[in-house]
Amino acid sequence: MLKEVTQSTYFDYYRENLFYIEAVIEKLLERIAEIDARREARGERTLCDSVQYRIKSPDSMMAKLKKRGFETHCNSAMENVYDAAGIRIICPYIDDVYLMAQKLAACSDIEVVEIKDYIKNPKENGYRSYHMILKTPVLWQGETKHVTSEVQIRTMVMNSWACCEHQLKYKKDVSNEESVALLKRCADEMLKIDYSMLRIRGMMEESCKREEFIV
Ligand code: 0O2
């Protein structure tokens, strides 16, 4: 059971929806693990460095609903906001992000509702990540519900930038233009690191293949 499910503040707000939210997270974690387990069995590199998840806190959910002009009760949350269940997949390389997204979309019990590719179209502040809104059927006490969730997929490099930025300024009104511009420049430089790492991997894989061929 996820730690949020045992907290009464979460249950007081989400009521029985909390169990569906927990179930959808567990199902997606299973699918993600299966994707990498299949690759491992074929002797391929795994796509995930780590996977994180969370249930959106009632305060954060109510603030989001209010900001968007919706009522703040839990039924409104389940209808109007898609990220009560949130999963973040951290991948070593930038091509892993797209491969993982493709593999998830191919799962028979996962429907892709929306995609926001903040890697191809980064946010103005430099934020990069691949976001998927998914709908997944979950069964709980004999009733099946189609539950939405948000899956964020990004590289370790993108994740370090996002974590620092989140701590420094996300949702805060920071008016120091120089620091905001510097943060954006860091994000752009970090993207170059992602592409360099991909190139290095390609070069190493090539030389391994050549050595195997010679032997
Ligand atoms: P938390 O604390 O992660 O749950 P909106 O929330 O209205 O701006 P929307 O339409 O819900 O945006 O989805 P979007 O833009 O795809 O972003 C949702 C999530 O992406 C956010 O969740 C963050 O986790 C992450 N995110 C988006 N933009 C940024 C950013 O500029 N910096 C960082 N560090 N993370 C970002 P929540 O619900 O806002 O917050």
Secondary structure layout plus pairing:
Layout lengths: L7 H7 L2 H25 L8 E6 L2 H10 L6 H7 L4 E7 L2 H12 L5 E7 L12 E11 L2 E13 H13 L8 H38 L1
Parallel strand pairs: 2-5
Antiparallel strand pairs: 1-2, 3-4, 4-5
Helix pairs in contact: 6-7
Bound molecules: ligand 0O2.
What do these coordinates show?
The chain is α+β, with helices and mostly antiparallel strands and 215 residues long. The chain folds into 2 domains: 3-156, Beta Polymerase, domain 2, CATH 3.30.460; 166-214. Helix content is 52%, strand content 20%. The protein has helices spanning 8-14, 17-41, 58-67, 74-80, 94-105, 156-168, 177-214, and strands at residues 50-55, 85-91, 111-117, 130-140, 143-155. Residues 56, 60, 64, 83, 86, 116, 123, 125, 127, 131, 162, 165-166, 170 line the site of ligand 0O2.
